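CORE FACILITY INTAKE
Project code: CF-77B
Contact: R.S. (postdoc)
Sample description: multi-component assembly, two entities in total
Requested service: structural model of the whole complex
Turnaround: standard
Below are the sequence entries exactly as provided by the requester. Do not edit them.
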Amino acid sequence: MSFVTQRPLELILARNLMSALSTPAFLVDEGGVLAFYNEAAGMLLGKRFEELGSVGPEEWGSLFGPFGEDGAPIPYDELPLVRAVRDGRPAHAEYTIRSTDGSEHSVEVSAFPILTAHGSQGGIAIFWPRGMGSNGAGPA
Amino acid sequence: MNVKLWGTRGSIPSPGPETIRYGGNTSCVGVTLNDGSMLALDAGSGIRSLGLSLPEEPTRLHILLTHLHLDHIQGLVFFAPAFRPQTEIVIWGPASPEASLRDRIARYISAPLSPVEVRELPCDVSFRHAPDTEWEIGSARIRAASVSHRGPTLGYRIDDGDSSLTYIPDHEPALGADLDRLEEDWISGFALARDTSLLIHDGQYSDAEYPEHIGWGHSALGHSLAFARRTGAERTLLFHHDPMHSDEFLDGLQEEARRRWVELGGDADAVDLARERAEIELSARAASPAVASSPAATA
């Protein structure tokens, strides 16, 4: 008999929640592999998750070229999501990402680890375009 | 493997003239393995009758708890073998960061809710967290996995010889998800139920009732059927009937379940509503599942 291995339930529930959110959100597993991002994130990045699929940490870390204010690429190890999963605590940063159509977006990113009875199972990053209101609404 | 349903009701025991045929006792399934080993799946009020059916001679029993909601443990203090010194009982259940399985169960088996304390039970009882990896009881291999419900909750799969039983009585896999589109590894409980000989699954609500109960941890009929179809279960018993559902209502739900199962490409006899005291003998696996496991096959 061949068994399909179920993802950790906490990741399944996180994905289900993210699917219903209009806030761009990114989900990685405990190994840092991109597990899912929602439609809102897809609009920001210019590519739906279904088009990209699951990719490893180094790939997604550079795919959308996070840049600091000085224009230099942010090292993978310093990305909030990577820090959150590695350190087991929330992380926050502001940077610029580049969409697949070449447009750039200045965003704030908050990431937190998914800690379970079996240890860390991954992490979630939520993106907020800078300049948005506290209710998520953009400038009129 | 012999499977007997001692309690099929969810939430609260619901005895009365309107629940005679499907039963009013809460969740409990007795399983006799091929080597004679005895398991009880959950310890709702149905376990009282299971206990009365067992011989008084020295016995070793395993009770596999899916979770600790009252309708799954309330029969423990009325389980006759627990009051016999010659009985050894191993209780398996979900781990929680809050407290041990024993301590959480002791909240119920203690004053003022119970006249006896766990330490006073005459039997030899032990408590074990269900491991992440497969383990053996008698002739069977057991697997447990966390499933979508409220609080730490497990589903179980029991493989014995060529047959398998999957038991997920409290389950809301469609919460925020489209079961027809989701990848297999992203479906709660999928790995436990894949190609199983018999799936005993939550069927608490009709589709019309579900919108008022989203997030309560249970399935609508359509979700249960979608889950059964995706996993390729050979036979499905819808379980954990809502206490408000009379025999008459459940007759209608069974008719609807069978009709919709046929529309999905399955055999009408492969889907039933669980009835208290029903007994199922699981023998060699059928040559192929009742319905295709791929959504594309019936799209």
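Facility notes:
- The longest helix of chain A spans residues 9-19.
- Residues 77 and 83 of chain A are 7 Å apart (CA to CA).
Invoice: internal transfer
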